[in-house]
Amino acid sequence: MEKKIADYEGILLIDKAQGCTSHDVVNDVRHILKMRAVGHAGTLDPLATGLLIILVGKATKASQYLMSVDKVYEGSFKLGEETNTQDSEGELVASLPVPALSGEDLKKQMASFLGDQYQTPPMFSAKKINGVPLYKLARKGQEIEREPRFIRISKFELLDWNSESKEAKFRIDCSKGTYVRTVCHDLGKRIGCGAHMTSLRRVKSGQLDISDAVSIEELKEMPPSAVRKALIPVSTAVPSIAF
What we know:
Elements: E1 10-16, H1 22-33, E2 38-41, E3 49-56, H2 63-68, E4 71-79, E5 81-83, E6 92-95, H3 103-111, E7 115-119, E8 128-129, E9 132-133, H4 134-139, E10 149-162, E11 167-174, H5 180-191, E12 195-205, E13 208-209, H6 216-221, H7 224-230, H8 234-237
Parallel strand pairs: 3-12
Antiparallel strand pairs: 1-3, 2-3, 4-11, 4-12, 5-6, 7-10, 8-9, 10-11, 12-13
């Protein structure tokens, strides 16, 4: 007789779909596994897809460690247009001509973002100031001063450049807390034509990889034995944490 799913614990890698929140995914997993002790490490915006780390049972103790590791994303941005959210879900606030750029020109501009630096969080973000999420102030048309925070970008690679549509695909390796849409926005500012992010997919978080993730739809169809195999022991992902 198989052990009840409610007795399980470990790290579950979910391939998050576009449009839902990270909290939506947590609620779905709670319902599927029929247990309350479920959390996540590292939020993804509704626009973003890809690797969401779900913590089951005592694995929630590993949250801080798993949130602190570097992340790898693949995505796309469009030059010549700025939005109020710095991504394609926002309202267009500026449209500017894009200078003639080759792929090599764009690579050079992207390379200037490598290394240690300070980044100012966007107004449309969940970061709280005096207990209030910035996006709530932004929706009221308010903009307040935000303290820049330290980030590191290890790689910022151009995967494809369409000079006609002014759209580019990229891959970025960055530290915890990096707003990738702000990197795209700031790149557009540096070039002088503006930009906004059009898609984002997290493919890696520390040593955890999207190739080992399952979708919520797949999880719903998995028998208990398959769920057991999918759960990564905390001791494997975070050897220093003892229970």
